[in-house]
Amino acid sequence: MEEAAVPQLLTEYQVYVLEEWNRFTSDPARPEATLDAASGLDVSRVLDIGCGAGQEMLPFIERGAAGIGLDPAPETGSMRRLLPEHRSVTFVRGMAEHLPFAEASFDIIICRVALPYMNNKRALGEMARTLRSRGRLLLKIHAAPYYTHKFGEGIRRRDPLFSIHAARVLAEGILYHLIGRQLRVLSGETFQSERLLGRELQPLGLRITGHMRDTNPLTPSFIIEKIL
Does this model's pTM top 0.85? Predict the structure, then answer.
């Protein structure tokens, strides 16, 4: 796919989501990996949490599915023009902890590196509630190495605030793993791990069934199925 042109007078948020759009649409491996993760599933409704411009939904929308993009940003949906030919796309401003949708509304839920900034228990509970039986959650997270790398980057850049933020996230993530509660007092951000996710997902009737092709030690990507 060709990259979208950059209009003038874009906000900082719009520049960011346009860059993410161009990264996705210029790399054929990305949509292929998404479709591979949904292999064997009949997909008619998709929810993208932390949607940006909605590019993660494209592989399903282009095959006839209806897509809803949800994001807390005030400018959510402002880049709708990137999807002019897709009438089955809706953008909603909202929080994953309080999804404004009925139970079992979606066949696929996509959430890529947005969970670290959420109340994990509430957000995962809402994802489980709105996902249909045997539906799949495609989840990408920040693992601890993401923040240890960020801590080192702060030292190399001589930017102490960069390193301090990473250290705070690591501290909160360690406490989350040890005591089973996400405190959100130091940074409002945390890292996750496969072990922690397994602990949070099991009571919700969700389980990790595989990894997406773009998984890596810093930002693992999971295929999660609703088994109830």
Answer: yes
Strands in 103-162 per DSSP E: 106-112, 131-140
Quote the CA–CA distance of 198 and 64 in Å, as a whole number. 32
pLDDT band of residue 152 (cuts 50, 70, 90) is very high
**HSE (CB half, 13 Å, CA atoms) of 95?**
9
3-class secondary structure per residue, 66-115: EEEEEECCCCCCCCHHHCCCCCCEEEEECCHHHCCCCCCCEEEEEEECCH
CB atoms within 10 A of CB 26: 12
Contact 24, 44 (CB under 8 A): no
CA dist., res. 223 & res. 204, Å (int) = 15
Q: How many residues are present in the chain?
A: 228
Read off the tokens for 23: 């990264």
Higher pLDDT, 18 or 8: 18
Residue 200's closest CA among 148, 141, 135, 146? 141
Question: Which residues lie closer than 8 Å to 2 by C-beta, 6 or more apart?
Answer: 25
Provide the b/e sequence for 6-23 (b: ≥16 CB within 10 Å): eeeeeeebbeebbebbbe
- Quick one: tokens of 114? 């947005």
Backbone angles phi, psi at 93, to 5 degrees: -85, 125
Whose structure tokens read 């649409």?
Answer: 25
